[in-house]
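Thread title: Can someone regenerate the structure for this chain?

I was given the following input by a collaborator and told the matching structure tokens would be attached. They weren't. Posting the sequence so someone can regenerate them.
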Amino acid sequence: MDINLLRSLVTVAAFAVFIGILVWVCLPARKAQFDDAAQLPFRSE
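Best answer:
Regenerated them for you:
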């Protein structure tokens, strides 16, 4: 296996993970969970 092929595969894999994270964050089902987490610093316990 050539080093350039390995570098290309790692780049494509990292890009796929990045796109996966973007899709996971933008799902409407996660909105309530992220809104709740955004309010954590402002809560007094």
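Residues 3-42 form one domain.
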